[in-house]
Design goal:
The protein is built from nine helices and nine strands. By secondary structure, the chain is of the alpha/beta class. Pfam families: Methyltransf_25.
């Protein structure tokens, strides 16, 4: 079994088990607290807002549908067929298109680029979940998709997020209900050093146009009743020459 196959099967199991309702998954926060905030940082750097917007790692499509209200063509892509079933079920009007896609596979990225042309990309919390050996290939796929005119907005957990997650997982009462399935399916967040993301982008031929820090909002609450927020960093990337 290849690394990618193990990763895909873990996500299939997770999404087959996940409830249908929005907000039932740990990271499925309402768009006003996620993509809405990110879009305010992203839009100023788009050279062509008319390009197709690809929500890479779209999951159940909550953020995809938000983006589809704001851009003329939005495509949600994910490695998991079960995730896409959730997304399509939640989008009966077909606001966005959804398709199975593995960005690590070079030929798949090339095929999607041939179909859509240069695209803008929104990706939240995907790189740190990828297998370490796949991360550069994933960013290479992003570079293929954005081409010369597109821009990518990438949000990733910072190094400070892992101790927070581990503390929640090792709580005497066990991990919070929405975090437990992530660990149970073997997709516990990996660690990506903060300085590794710029290196992945540079190696793929992309430059950083803007960057910053912003908490990644979850749908879970701590014992004190406050919503769990995870330290994260964001970058806008694209061709710089």
């Amino acid at each position: 079994m290849s690394v990618t196959s193990r990763y895909r099967e873990a996500w299939e199991g997770f999404w087959r088990e996940a409830p249908e309702e929005q907000g039932a998954v740990f990271w499925d926060a309402e768009p006003a607290l996620t993509a809405g905030r990110h879009l305010a940082l992203f839009e100023a750097h788009l050279t062509d807002p008319g390009l197709a917007m690809v929500d890479l790692g779209c999951g159940n499509g909550t953020q995809t549908r938000f983006l589809a209200d704001r851009f003329p063509r939005v495509v949600g892509v994910d490695l998991s067929a079960a995730a896409l079933e959730h997304a399509r079920h939640a989008d009966p009007a077909g606001q966005a298109a959804y398709r199975l896609f593995d960005a690590v596979e070079k030929t798949e990225a090339e095929t999607l680029h041939a179909e859509l042309g240069d695209v803008n990309i929104y990706m939240r919390g995907v790189l740190h979940q990828a297998e370490p050996d796949d991360r550069q290939q994933l960013v290479n796929g992003i570079a293929t998709l954005v081409g010369e005119r597109g821009r990518a907005f990438l949000v990733e957990l910072s190094q400070e997020a892992k101790p927070v997650l581990m503390g929640l997982a090792q709580s005497p009462s066990g991990p919070p209900p929405k975090l437990a399935p992530i660990f149970r399916h073997g997709i516990a967040p990996g660690e990506v050093a903060d300085d590794a993301v710029p290196e992945f982008l540079r190696a793929a031929g992309l430059g950083i146009l803007a960057s910053g820090e912003l908490p990644l909002i979850t749908t879970e609450y701590g014992p004190d009743g406050t919503r769990i927020e995870l330290p994260s960093t964001w970058v806008v990337a694209g061709r710089t020459s």
